[in-house]
């Protein structure tokens, strides 16, 4: 038996505002979401655009939807759990529908030292599983891993060289 929140589309017999409000509250009770994500969710459920816009505006007024706060939390979480650099975080924020100006503001707060520390931690973790590899292969894999996480090639190579030690750096 499906519940109203599981029904894929808006039921014309139900008040559209109540239906949309329930969807929004259900989504926000799970985790913070960007306005764009909520708009997309309402659109998938066939909530009329005018109702969705009005409710989302009201949710923003009362602070339930706040793209800047969402972006800060997202950046903090993704940096801590995945070790992503600003470049990768910026791409994720774009996909989440965060305005460029808001993303720039939030990403400017990321400390470059923290970013380098995160890169070091990623390299150290990966090194544990790379025993016995050729030095060149290890460097290539580690730099590639950091590049996929959004780190610049200069920073990635510098961190890898430092973490592998001076004896490996001399061979390069």
Automatic annotation (TrEMBL):
Entries under InterPro entries matching the protein: RecX_HTH_1st, RecX_HTH_2nd, RecX_HTH_3rd, Regulatory_RecX, WH-like_DNA-bd_sf
Domain RecX third three-helical: residue ranges: 114-160
Domain of life: Bacteria
Location relative to the cell: Cytoplasm
Alphabetic keyword roster: Cytoplasm
Keyword Magnesium: no
Xref: HAMAP family: RecX
Similarity section: Belongs to the RecX family.
Name this protein carries in UniProt: Regulatory protein RecX
Record lineage: Bacteria, Bacillati, Actinomycetota, Actinomycetes, Propionibacteriales
């Amino acid at each position: 038996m499906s519940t109203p929140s599981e029904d894929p589309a808006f039921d014309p017999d139900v008040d559209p505002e109540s239906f949309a409000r329930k969807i929004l509250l259900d989504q926000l009770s799970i985790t913070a979401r960007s306005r764009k994500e909520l708009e997309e969710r309402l659109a998938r459920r066939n909530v009329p655009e005018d109702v969705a816009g009005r409710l989302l505006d009201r949710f923003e007024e009362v602070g339930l939807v706040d793209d800047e706060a969402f972006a800060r939390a997202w950046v903090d979480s993704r940096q801590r759990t995945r070790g992503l650099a600003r470049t990768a975080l910026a791409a994720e924020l774009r996909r989440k529908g965060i305005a460029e100006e808001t993303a720039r503001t939030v990403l400017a707060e990321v400390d470059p030292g923290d970013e380098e520390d995160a890169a070091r931690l990623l390299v150290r973790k990966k090194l544990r599983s790379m025993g016995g590899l050729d030095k060149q292969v290890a460097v290539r894999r580690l730099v590639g891993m950091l590049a996929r996480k959004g780190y610049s090639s200069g920073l990635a190579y510098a961190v890898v060289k430092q973490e592998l030690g001076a004896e490996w750096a001399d061979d390069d």
